[in-house]
Amino acid sequence: MSIHHNVLLLGLLTIACVGCSQSPTAFAADTPATVAHLVPLPQSMQPQQGELHLSGAVKLDVDAAAPNARRALEEALSGLGVATDDSAKTQISLQLVDDASLGEEGYRLVVGDDIRLSASSDVGLLYAVQSLRQLLPAQLQPEYRLPRVEINDVPAYGWRGLSLDVARSFLSVDYLEKTIDRMAFFKLNRLHLHLTDDQGWRIEIKAYPKLTEIGGASAVEGGRSGFYTQDELKHLVAYAQARGITIVPEVDLPGHTQAALASYNELACDDVTNLAPYSGLEVGFSVLCLEKPDVVYPFVRTVLEEVLAIFPSQEIHVGGDEIKHPLYADFVSRAAAMVDEMGRTAIFWEEASVGDTKPNVLFQFWNDGYDIAAAVEEGHPLVLSPCSYFYIDHGNYAGQPQTYDWCRKEGVPLARLYSFDPSPFKTAVGIEAALWTELVHTDAAADNRLWPRLAAAAEVAWSPGGKRSYEGFVQRMGALRPHLDAMGVQYHPEPDLGWDEAGRED
Ligand code: TNX
Fold it and tell me: Which amino acids are annotated catalytic?
Protein backbone atom coordinates (compact mmCIF):
# COMPACT_ATOMS: atom_id res chain seq x y z
CA MET A 1 0.00 0.00 0.00
CA SER A 2 1.33 3.44 -0.90
CA ILE A 3 2.01 6.08 1.69
CA HIS A 4 -0.90 7.96 0.26
CA HIS A 5 -3.21 5.03 0.93
CA ASN A 6 -1.90 4.63 4.42
CA VAL A 7 -2.63 8.24 5.19
CA LEU A 8 -6.08 7.82 3.71
CA LEU A 9 -6.73 4.71 5.76
CA LEU A 10 -5.54 6.38 8.91
CA GLY A 11 -7.80 9.31 8.11
CA LEU A 12 -10.77 6.98 7.67
CA LEU A 13 -10.00 5.17 10.89
CA THR A 14 -9.74 8.52 12.62
CA ILE A 15 -13.12 9.56 11.31
CA ALA A 16 -14.62 6.18 12.08
CA CYS A 17 -13.30 6.47 15.58
CA VAL A 18 -14.66 9.92 16.41
CA GLY A 19 -16.60 9.60 19.61
CA CYS A 20 -15.50 6.02 20.20
CA SER A 21 -13.06 5.10 22.83
CA GLN A 22 -9.88 3.98 21.12
CA SER A 23 -7.23 5.77 19.17
CA PRO A 24 -6.59 4.38 15.67
CA THR A 25 -3.23 2.90 16.63
CA ALA A 26 -4.93 0.66 19.18
CA PHE A 27 -6.46 -1.30 16.31
CA ALA A 28 -3.08 -2.55 15.17
CA ALA A 29 -2.85 -6.24 15.97
CA ASP A 30 0.92 -6.15 16.06
CA THR A 31 1.74 -3.31 18.39
CA PRO A 32 5.41 -2.47 18.88
CA ALA A 33 7.25 -3.41 22.06
CA THR A 34 5.43 -1.99 25.04
CA VAL A 35 6.73 1.09 26.77
CA ALA A 36 5.83 2.32 30.24
CA HIS A 37 3.79 5.52 29.90
CA LEU A 38 3.15 6.72 33.41
CA VAL A 39 1.64 9.97 34.65
CA PRO A 40 2.79 11.17 37.10
CA LEU A 41 6.35 10.23 36.24
CA PRO A 42 7.72 7.88 38.92
CA GLN A 43 10.74 8.79 40.95
CA SER A 44 12.71 5.93 39.44
CA MET A 45 11.91 3.46 36.72
CA GLN A 46 14.30 0.81 35.41
CA PRO A 47 13.11 -0.86 32.24
CA GLN A 48 14.16 -4.51 32.00
CA GLN A 49 14.55 -6.70 28.94
CA GLY A 50 11.40 -8.17 27.49
CA GLU A 51 7.74 -8.35 28.22
CA LEU A 52 5.35 -10.25 30.41
CA HIS A 53 2.43 -11.74 28.53
CA LEU A 54 -0.84 -11.99 30.38
CA SER A 55 -3.91 -13.78 29.22
CA GLY A 56 -6.85 -15.57 30.73
CA ALA A 57 -6.34 -15.51 34.43
CA VAL A 58 -3.93 -14.48 37.15
CA LYS A 59 -3.35 -15.72 40.66
CA LEU A 60 -3.81 -13.04 43.35
CA ASP A 61 -1.87 -12.91 46.57
CA VAL A 62 -3.04 -9.88 48.52
CA ASP A 63 -2.21 -8.78 52.03
CA ALA A 64 -5.42 -8.82 54.05
CA ALA A 65 -4.65 -5.34 55.34
CA ALA A 66 -4.92 -3.80 51.88
CA PRO A 67 -8.65 -3.94 51.07
CA ASN A 68 -8.74 -0.75 49.00
CA ALA A 69 -5.83 -1.78 46.82
CA ARG A 70 -7.41 -5.22 46.37
CA ARG A 71 -10.71 -3.72 45.27
CA ALA A 72 -8.96 -1.37 42.79
CA LEU A 73 -6.96 -4.27 41.36
CA GLU A 74 -9.97 -6.56 41.06
CA GLU A 75 -11.96 -3.84 39.34
CA ALA A 76 -9.14 -3.15 36.90
CA LEU A 77 -8.68 -6.85 36.09
CA SER A 78 -12.35 -7.55 35.63
CA GLY A 79 -12.62 -4.50 33.33
CA LEU A 80 -9.97 -6.15 31.18
CA GLY A 81 -11.61 -9.57 31.32
CA VAL A 82 -8.78 -11.09 33.38
CA ALA A 83 -10.12 -13.65 35.82
CA THR A 84 -8.50 -14.61 39.10
CA ASP A 85 -7.67 -18.23 39.60
CA ASP A 86 -5.33 -19.87 42.11
CA SER A 87 -3.99 -22.25 39.51
CA ALA A 88 -3.06 -19.49 37.04
CA LYS A 89 0.54 -19.32 35.88
CA THR A 90 1.13 -15.60 36.51
CA GLN A 91 0.83 -14.16 39.98
CA ILE A 92 0.08 -10.61 41.08
CA SER A 93 1.08 -10.01 44.66
CA LEU A 94 0.27 -7.02 46.86
CA GLN A 95 2.40 -7.02 49.97
CA LEU A 96 2.68 -4.65 52.87
CA VAL A 97 6.33 -4.24 53.79
CA ASP A 98 8.19 -2.44 56.50
CA ASP A 99 10.30 -0.05 54.44
CA ALA A 100 10.71 3.49 55.74
CA SER A 101 12.08 4.71 52.41
CA LEU A 102 8.63 4.25 50.89
CA GLY A 103 6.92 6.54 53.40
CA GLU A 104 3.14 6.54 53.73
CA GLU A 105 2.39 6.82 50.01
CA GLY A 106 5.35 5.28 48.20
CA TYR A 107 5.37 1.91 46.47
CA ARG A 108 7.46 -0.53 44.49
CA LEU A 109 6.20 -2.25 41.36
CA VAL A 110 8.15 -5.01 39.68
CA VAL A 111 7.04 -6.63 36.46
CA GLY A 112 9.17 -9.70 35.85
CA ASP A 113 7.93 -13.27 35.51
CA ASP A 114 5.27 -12.20 37.99
CA ILE A 115 3.94 -8.84 39.06
CA ARG A 116 4.94 -7.73 42.52
CA LEU A 117 3.53 -4.65 44.21
CA SER A 118 4.75 -3.57 47.63
CA ALA A 119 4.23 -0.61 49.92
CA SER A 120 4.00 0.20 53.59
CA SER A 121 0.30 1.06 53.48
CA ASP A 122 -2.92 0.25 51.68
CA VAL A 123 -2.75 3.64 49.99
CA GLY A 124 0.78 2.98 48.73
CA LEU A 125 -0.45 -0.30 47.23
CA LEU A 126 -3.38 1.58 45.74
CA TYR A 127 -0.92 3.83 43.90
CA ALA A 128 1.01 0.77 42.74
CA VAL A 129 -2.25 -0.56 41.31
CA GLN A 130 -2.85 2.76 39.53
CA SER A 131 0.60 2.48 37.95
CA LEU A 132 -0.17 -1.08 36.90
CA ARG A 133 -3.43 0.11 35.32
CA GLN A 134 -1.40 2.63 33.31
CA LEU A 135 1.00 -0.08 32.16
CA LEU A 136 -1.95 -2.10 30.90
CA PRO A 137 -4.09 -1.04 27.97
CA ALA A 138 -7.42 0.62 28.61
CA GLN A 139 -9.45 -1.82 26.57
CA LEU A 140 -10.21 -5.51 26.57
CA GLN A 141 -7.74 -7.52 24.49
CA PRO A 142 -7.10 -11.22 23.94
CA GLU A 143 -3.65 -10.91 25.47
CA TYR A 144 -1.85 -8.21 27.44
CA ARG A 145 1.82 -7.37 27.02
CA LEU A 146 3.47 -5.58 29.88
CA PRO A 147 6.93 -4.06 29.75
CA ARG A 148 9.25 -5.65 32.31
CA VAL A 149 10.18 -2.87 34.65
CA GLU A 150 11.11 -2.00 38.19
CA ILE A 151 9.53 1.13 39.60
CA ASN A 152 10.38 2.74 42.92
CA ASP A 153 8.16 5.67 43.56
CA VAL A 154 7.38 8.22 46.26
CA PRO A 155 5.61 11.56 45.85
CA ALA A 156 7.46 14.87 46.08
CA TYR A 157 4.50 16.51 47.84
CA GLY A 158 1.87 15.10 50.17
CA TRP A 159 -0.95 17.46 49.12
CA ARG A 160 -1.98 16.91 45.51
CA GLY A 161 -5.32 18.46 45.04
CA LEU A 162 -8.23 19.82 43.17
CA SER A 163 -10.39 22.60 44.51
CA LEU A 164 -13.87 22.31 43.07
CA ASP A 165 -16.46 25.06 43.38
CA VAL A 166 -19.84 23.37 43.78
CA ALA A 167 -21.37 26.56 45.17
CA ARG A 168 -21.64 28.77 42.11
CA SER A 169 -22.94 25.86 40.07
CA PHE A 170 -23.83 22.55 41.67
CA LEU A 171 -22.20 19.26 40.67
CA SER A 172 -23.98 15.97 41.34
CA VAL A 173 -22.74 13.23 43.65
CA ASP A 174 -22.44 11.04 40.58
CA TYR A 175 -20.14 13.54 38.87
CA LEU A 176 -18.05 13.90 42.02
CA GLU A 177 -17.63 10.12 42.19
CA LYS A 178 -16.43 10.06 38.60
CA THR A 179 -14.03 12.89 39.31
CA ILE A 180 -12.69 11.02 42.35
CA ASP A 181 -12.09 7.91 40.21
CA ARG A 182 -10.19 9.93 37.65
CA MET A 183 -8.18 11.79 40.27
CA ALA A 184 -7.20 8.47 41.85
CA PHE A 185 -5.89 7.25 38.49
CA PHE A 186 -3.35 10.11 38.60
CA LYS A 187 -2.56 9.69 42.32
CA LEU A 188 -4.19 12.95 43.38
CA ASN A 189 -5.17 12.81 47.03
CA ARG A 190 -7.13 15.94 48.06
CA LEU A 191 -10.53 17.00 46.84
CA HIS A 192 -11.29 20.41 48.30
CA LEU A 193 -15.00 21.15 47.97
CA HIS A 194 -15.91 24.83 47.99
CA LEU A 195 -19.35 24.18 49.49
CA THR A 196 -20.68 27.67 50.11
CA ASP A 197 -20.54 31.02 48.39
CA ASP A 198 -22.75 33.98 47.53
CA GLN A 199 -24.67 32.06 44.88
CA GLY A 200 -25.39 28.89 46.83
CA TRP A 201 -25.10 26.94 50.11
CA ARG A 202 -24.63 23.27 49.27
CA ILE A 203 -24.16 21.44 52.57
CA GLU A 204 -27.06 20.42 54.77
CA ILE A 205 -26.71 21.90 58.27
CA LYS A 206 -29.37 20.38 60.49
CA ALA A 207 -29.40 23.25 62.98
CA TYR A 208 -29.98 25.76 60.16
CA PRO A 209 -32.30 24.09 57.63
CA LYS A 210 -32.97 27.29 55.69
CA LEU A 211 -29.34 27.36 54.55
CA THR A 212 -30.21 24.65 52.05
CA GLU A 213 -33.95 25.37 51.70
CA ILE A 214 -33.21 28.91 50.57
CA GLY A 215 -29.45 29.02 50.02
CA GLY A 216 -29.41 25.68 48.20
CA ALA A 217 -32.07 26.75 45.75
CA SER A 218 -30.02 29.47 44.08
CA ALA A 219 -27.08 29.30 41.69
CA VAL A 220 -25.07 31.53 39.44
CA GLU A 221 -27.04 32.61 36.39
CA GLY A 222 -27.18 29.70 33.95
CA GLY A 223 -25.78 27.31 36.56
CA ARG A 224 -27.31 24.49 38.58
CA SER A 225 -28.71 24.70 42.08
CA GLY A 226 -29.00 21.94 44.67
CA PHE A 227 -27.34 20.70 47.83
CA TYR A 228 -25.88 17.58 49.40
CA THR A 229 -27.48 15.92 52.38
CA GLN A 230 -25.18 14.94 55.22
CA ASP A 231 -25.70 11.29 54.30
CA GLU A 232 -24.65 11.96 50.72
CA LEU A 233 -21.53 13.74 51.92
CA LYS A 234 -20.67 10.89 54.31
CA HIS A 235 -21.04 8.50 51.40
CA LEU A 236 -18.71 10.66 49.29
CA VAL A 237 -16.16 10.83 52.09
CA ALA A 238 -16.07 7.03 52.26
CA TYR A 239 -16.00 6.68 48.48
CA ALA A 240 -13.04 9.05 48.27
CA GLN A 241 -11.24 7.48 51.23
CA ALA A 242 -11.38 4.07 49.57
CA ARG A 243 -9.58 5.65 46.63
CA GLY A 244 -6.88 7.36 48.67
CA ILE A 245 -8.53 10.79 48.58
CA THR A 246 -9.33 13.06 51.49
CA ILE A 247 -12.22 15.44 50.98
CA VAL A 248 -11.35 18.82 52.46
CA PRO A 249 -14.55 20.76 53.06
CA GLU A 250 -14.66 24.54 52.72
CA VAL A 251 -17.30 26.73 54.24
CA ASP A 252 -16.30 30.16 53.02
CA LEU A 253 -16.50 32.73 55.85
CA PRO A 254 -16.96 35.56 56.70
CA GLY A 255 -17.31 36.91 53.15
CA HIS A 256 -18.83 35.13 50.15
CA THR A 257 -21.88 34.53 52.35
CA GLN A 258 -24.84 36.00 50.50
CA ALA A 259 -26.60 32.62 50.37
CA ALA A 260 -26.34 32.38 54.17
CA LEU A 261 -27.50 35.97 54.67
CA ALA A 262 -30.46 35.40 52.37
CA SER A 263 -31.37 32.30 54.41
CA TYR A 264 -30.90 33.81 57.88
CA ASN A 265 -31.19 37.58 57.69
CA GLU A 266 -30.10 38.05 61.28
CA LEU A 267 -26.55 37.11 60.22
CA ALA A 268 -26.38 40.43 58.34
CA CYS A 269 -25.92 43.89 59.84
CA ASP A 270 -28.47 45.37 57.52
CA ASP A 271 -31.92 43.87 57.53
CA VAL A 272 -33.27 46.15 54.86
CA THR A 273 -31.21 45.88 51.71
CA ASN A 274 -29.52 43.19 49.71
CA LEU A 275 -30.77 40.11 51.52
CA ALA A 276 -32.07 38.27 48.45
CA PRO A 277 -30.45 35.22 46.85
CA TYR A 278 -27.71 36.25 44.42
CA SER A 279 -26.93 34.91 40.96
CA GLY A 280 -24.45 37.44 39.59
CA LEU A 281 -20.69 37.26 39.11
CA GLU A 282 -19.48 39.89 41.56
CA VAL A 283 -17.23 38.93 44.46
CA GLY A 284 -16.40 40.63 47.74
CA PHE A 285 -19.71 42.30 48.58
CA SER A 286 -21.20 40.14 51.35
CA VAL A 287 -20.08 39.60 54.91
CA LEU A 288 -21.43 38.11 58.12
CA CYS A 289 -22.16 40.87 60.61
CA LEU A 290 -18.93 40.71 62.60
CA GLU A 291 -20.27 43.52 64.79
CA LYS A 292 -22.78 41.01 66.17
CA PRO A 293 -20.42 38.39 67.66
CA ASP A 294 -23.21 36.92 69.79
CA VAL A 295 -25.10 36.00 66.66
CA VAL A 296 -22.28 35.21 64.27
CA TYR A 297 -19.93 33.06 66.38
CA PRO A 298 -22.54 30.61 67.66
CA PHE A 299 -23.54 30.18 64.00
CA VAL A 300 -19.95 29.60 62.93
CA ARG A 301 -19.39 27.12 65.76
CA THR A 302 -22.52 25.10 65.05
CA VAL A 303 -21.82 24.99 61.34
CA LEU A 304 -18.23 23.89 61.96
CA GLU A 305 -19.35 21.21 64.43
CA GLU A 306 -21.68 19.70 61.85
CA VAL A 307 -19.04 19.99 59.11
CA LEU A 308 -16.46 18.21 61.28
CA ALA A 309 -18.89 15.43 62.10
CA ILE A 310 -19.17 14.66 58.38
CA PHE A 311 -15.57 15.15 57.23
CA PRO A 312 -12.70 13.40 59.01
CA SER A 313 -10.13 15.56 57.18
CA GLN A 314 -7.54 16.97 59.57
CA GLU A 315 -7.62 20.22 57.58
CA ILE A 316 -10.84 22.21 57.47
CA HIS A 317 -11.08 25.15 55.06
CA VAL A 318 -12.71 28.25 56.44
CA GLY A 319 -12.31 30.42 53.32
CA GLY A 320 -11.45 33.95 54.33
CA ASP A 321 -11.00 35.34 50.83
CA GLU A 322 -11.82 38.65 49.26
CA ILE A 323 -13.11 40.53 52.22
CA LYS A 324 -12.05 43.88 53.60
CA HIS A 325 -13.38 44.53 57.08
CA PRO A 326 -11.91 46.06 60.25
CA LEU A 327 -12.81 42.91 62.21
CA TYR A 328 -11.55 40.48 59.56
CA ALA A 329 -8.26 39.61 61.26
CA ASP A 330 -10.14 39.04 64.50
CA PHE A 331 -12.53 36.68 62.72
CA VAL A 332 -9.63 34.66 61.32
CA SER A 333 -8.02 34.30 64.74
CA ARG A 334 -11.28 33.23 66.35
CA ALA A 335 -12.26 30.80 63.61
CA ALA A 336 -8.79 29.23 63.56
CA ALA A 337 -8.87 28.85 67.36
CA MET A 338 -12.32 27.24 67.16
CA VAL A 339 -11.13 24.66 64.61
CA ASP A 340 -8.05 24.04 66.74
CA GLU A 341 -10.17 23.47 69.86
CA MET A 342 -12.16 20.92 67.90
CA GLY A 343 -8.95 18.99 67.23
CA ARG A 344 -8.50 19.96 63.60
CA THR A 345 -6.37 22.44 61.66
CA ALA A 346 -7.75 25.43 59.80
CA ILE A 347 -6.79 26.28 56.27
CA PHE A 348 -7.65 29.68 54.80
CA TRP A 349 -7.08 31.54 51.57
CA GLU A 350 -3.87 33.62 51.71
CA GLU A 351 -5.49 36.88 52.90
CA ALA A 352 -6.01 35.27 56.31
CA SER A 353 -2.27 35.45 56.93
CA VAL A 354 -3.05 38.85 58.55
CA GLY A 355 -4.75 36.98 61.42
CA ASP A 356 -3.12 35.82 64.60
CA THR A 357 -3.00 32.05 64.21
CA LYS A 358 -0.85 29.15 65.33
CA PRO A 359 1.96 28.33 62.89
CA ASN A 360 0.33 25.03 61.92
CA VAL A 361 -2.57 26.86 60.25
CA LEU A 362 -2.32 26.49 56.48
CA PHE A 363 -2.73 29.18 53.87
CA GLN A 364 -3.74 28.67 50.28
CA PHE A 365 -1.69 30.94 48.05
CA TRP A 366 -3.70 32.13 45.03
CA ASN A 367 -2.56 35.56 43.81
CA ASP A 368 0.84 35.11 42.16
CA GLY A 369 2.06 38.41 43.54
CA TYR A 370 0.73 38.10 47.09
CA ASP A 371 3.39 38.69 49.71
CA ILE A 372 3.27 35.49 51.74
CA ALA A 373 6.87 35.72 52.99
CA ALA A 374 6.00 36.62 56.58
CA ALA A 375 3.68 33.61 56.93
CA VAL A 376 6.37 31.34 55.48
CA GLU A 377 8.83 32.84 57.93
CA GLU A 378 6.48 31.86 60.77
CA GLY A 379 6.36 28.34 59.42
CA HIS A 380 2.79 28.29 58.07
CA PRO A 381 2.40 25.46 55.55
CA LEU A 382 1.24 26.57 52.11
CA VAL A 383 -1.02 24.95 49.55
CA LEU A 384 -0.01 26.48 46.24
CA SER A 385 -2.69 27.58 43.79
CA PRO A 386 -1.18 30.63 42.05
CA CYS A 387 -3.90 31.67 39.66
CA SER A 388 -1.71 32.18 36.61
CA TYR A 389 -0.83 28.46 36.73
CA PHE A 390 -3.65 26.70 38.53
CA TYR A 391 -6.91 28.58 37.94
CA ILE A 392 -8.42 26.23 35.44
CA ASP A 393 -11.57 28.29 35.14
CA HIS A 394 -9.15 30.11 32.81
CA GLY A 395 -8.96 28.91 29.22
CA ASN A 396 -7.16 25.84 27.94
CA TYR A 397 -6.14 28.39 25.32
CA ALA A 398 -6.40 32.17 24.99
CA GLY A 399 -9.93 33.30 24.33
CA GLN A 400 -11.64 29.97 25.03
CA PRO A 401 -15.37 30.74 25.33
CA GLN A 402 -16.87 30.68 28.82
CA THR A 403 -13.56 31.06 30.62
CA TYR A 404 -12.08 33.79 32.77
CA ASP A 405 -8.87 35.61 31.97
CA TRP A 406 -8.59 38.11 34.81
CA CYS A 407 -5.45 36.46 36.16
CA ARG A 408 -3.78 35.66 32.85
CA LYS A 409 -4.90 37.00 29.49
CA GLU A 410 -3.49 33.98 27.64
CA GLY A 411 -5.46 31.58 29.80
CA VAL A 412 -3.74 28.64 31.51
CA PRO A 413 -2.74 26.22 28.75
CA LEU A 414 -1.43 22.78 29.64
CA ALA A 415 2.21 23.78 29.13
CA ARG A 416 1.80 26.78 31.40
CA LEU A 417 0.36 24.76 34.23
CA TYR A 418 3.07 22.13 33.78
CA SER A 419 5.84 24.73 34.00
CA PHE A 420 5.13 25.58 37.64
CA ASP A 421 8.00 25.04 40.04
CA PRO A 422 6.88 24.70 43.67
CA SER A 423 10.41 24.47 45.06
CA PRO A 424 10.95 28.15 45.95
CA PHE A 425 8.09 27.93 48.47
CA LYS A 426 9.88 26.50 51.46
CA THR A 427 6.82 25.56 53.49
CA ALA A 428 4.74 24.23 50.60
CA VAL A 429 2.91 20.99 51.35
CA GLY A 430 1.71 20.73 47.79
CA ILE A 431 -0.48 22.21 45.12
CA GLU A 432 -4.11 22.49 44.18
CA ALA A 433 -5.65 23.31 40.84
CA ALA A 434 -8.86 25.31 41.27
CA LEU A 435 -11.99 25.09 39.20
CA TRP A 436 -14.40 27.93 39.93
CA THR A 437 -17.76 27.46 38.31
CA GLU A 438 -19.20 30.90 37.58
CA LEU A 439 -18.83 29.98 33.91
CA VAL A 440 -18.92 26.17 34.19
CA HIS A 441 -22.50 24.96 34.20
CA THR A 442 -22.41 21.40 32.84
CA ASP A 443 -20.45 18.21 33.51
CA ALA A 444 -19.05 18.40 29.99
CA ALA A 445 -17.71 21.90 30.60
CA ALA A 446 -16.21 20.79 33.93
CA ASP A 447 -14.50 17.83 32.25
CA ASN A 448 -13.15 20.11 29.55
CA ARG A 449 -11.60 22.46 32.10
CA LEU A 450 -10.25 19.67 34.30
CA TRP A 451 -8.68 17.32 31.78
CA PRO A 452 -5.93 16.93 30.78
CA ARG A 453 -4.73 19.85 32.92
CA LEU A 454 -5.38 18.05 36.19
CA ALA A 455 -3.03 15.26 35.10
CA ALA A 456 -0.30 17.89 34.65
CA ALA A 457 -1.05 19.20 38.14
CA ALA A 458 -0.68 15.65 39.46
CA GLU A 459 2.75 15.38 37.89
CA VAL A 460 3.89 18.78 39.20
CA ALA A 461 2.96 17.63 42.70
CA TRP A 462 4.15 14.03 42.56
CA SER A 463 7.25 13.88 40.37
CA PRO A 464 10.76 15.05 41.18
CA GLY A 465 11.24 18.54 39.71
CA GLY A 466 14.62 17.75 38.21
CA LYS A 467 13.41 14.70 36.31
CA ARG A 468 10.18 15.72 34.67
CA SER A 469 9.94 17.62 31.40
CA TYR A 470 7.01 18.84 29.33
CA GLU A 471 8.22 16.85 26.31
CA GLY A 472 8.21 13.68 28.36
CA PHE A 473 4.83 14.49 29.85
CA VAL A 474 3.34 15.13 26.42
CA GLN A 475 4.49 11.71 25.21
CA ARG A 476 3.32 9.81 28.25
CA MET A 477 0.04 11.68 28.64
CA GLY A 478 -0.67 11.43 24.94
CA ALA A 479 -0.47 7.67 25.26
CA LEU A 480 -2.96 7.62 28.13
CA ARG A 481 -5.77 9.02 26.02
CA PRO A 482 -7.51 5.63 25.66
CA HIS A 483 -7.63 5.43 29.45
CA LEU A 484 -9.38 8.79 29.67
CA ASP A 485 -11.74 7.63 26.93
CA ALA A 486 -12.46 4.41 28.81
CA MET A 487 -13.34 6.50 31.87
CA GLY A 488 -15.70 8.58 29.75
CA VAL A 489 -13.79 11.83 30.25
CA GLN A 490 -14.91 14.66 27.97
CA TYR A 491 -11.46 16.25 27.97
CA HIS A 492 -10.24 19.28 26.09
CA PRO A 493 -8.81 18.04 22.75
CA GLU A 494 -5.39 19.43 23.57
CA PRO A 495 -3.32 20.10 20.43
CA ASP A 496 0.00 19.67 22.30
CA LEU A 497 -1.04 16.05 22.91
CA GLY A 498 -2.18 15.50 19.35
CA TRP A 499 -5.78 15.21 20.52
CA ASP A 500 -7.20 17.92 18.30
CA GLU A 501 -8.32 15.88 15.33
CA ALA A 502 -11.23 17.15 13.30
CA GLY A 503 -14.67 16.27 14.47
CA ARG A 504 -14.23 16.92 18.17
CA GLU A 505 -15.95 19.94 19.54
CA ASP A 506 -14.36 22.04 22.19
C1 TNX B 1 -11.31 34.48 42.88
S2 TNX B 1 -9.71 32.57 44.47
C3 TNX B 1 -12.04 33.90 43.90
C4 TNX B 1 -13.27 33.19 43.58
C5 TNX B 1 -13.66 33.35 42.14
C6 TNX B 1 -12.45 33.23 41.25
C7 TNX B 1 -12.75 33.30 39.78
C8 TNX B 1 -10.55 33.06 45.53
C9 TNX B 1 -10.08 32.69 46.81
N10 TNX B 1 -11.62 33.81 45.20
O11 TNX B 1 -14.30 33.61 44.43
O12 TNX B 1 -14.58 32.36 41.84
O13 TNX B 1 -11.53 34.23 41.58
O14 TNX B 1 -11.63 33.00 39.01
Answer: 322
